[in-house]
Amino acid sequence: MKRFIIEREIENAGDLTTEQLAGIAQTSNEAVASLGVPYTWVNSYVAGDKIYCVHEAEDAETILEHARRGGFPANKVTEVANEFGPQSAPAPVS
Predict the structure, then answer these.
(1) Which residues, 6 or more positions from 59, have their beta carbon under 8 angstroms from its beta carbon?
(2) The CATH number of the domain where 77 resides is what?
(3) What is the pLDDT of residues 17-52, one digit of tens each?
(4) What would the 3-class secondary structure string for the chain be?
(5) The domain containing residue 24 runs over which residues?
(6) How much is the pTM?
(7) Residues whose CB is less than 8 angstroms from the CB of residue 26 and which lie 6 or more positions away in sequence, other chains included
């Protein structure tokens, strides 16, 4: 599956409570289950008026269908070209 970053513009997203985020998660899980195709919600991050989500699916159209079924905005969907992190660097030489 391909990995995508989804940018969702939601006014006052940073003010959502734990209970509200749990409700969003439940709705998202139900939307995933209804798709009937391979789909994984990896994680989401709230920052200001946006929520950034990392999902895995076969294509961007499936990402958009998940958003439609869940009633979520999907203002920008970008396929991840590559991933790296601190583990990507060679070990320091002593």
Answers:
(1) 2
(2) 3.30.70.3090
(3) 999 999 999 999 999 999 999 999 999 999 999 999
(4) CEEEEEEEECCCHHHCCHHHHHHHHHHHHHHHHHHCCCCEEEEEEEECCEEEEEEEECCHHHHHHHHHHHCCCCCEEEECCCCCCHHHCCCCCC
(5) 2-81
(6) 0.89
(7) none
Q: Within a domain: residue 23? A: yes
- Total tally of structural domains belonging to the chain: 1
User: Locate tokens 């008026």: which residue?
Assistant: 49
Nearest to 45 by CA among 8, 83, 4, 89: 8
Residue 93 counted as domain residue: no
> Is 87 within the bounds of a domain?
no
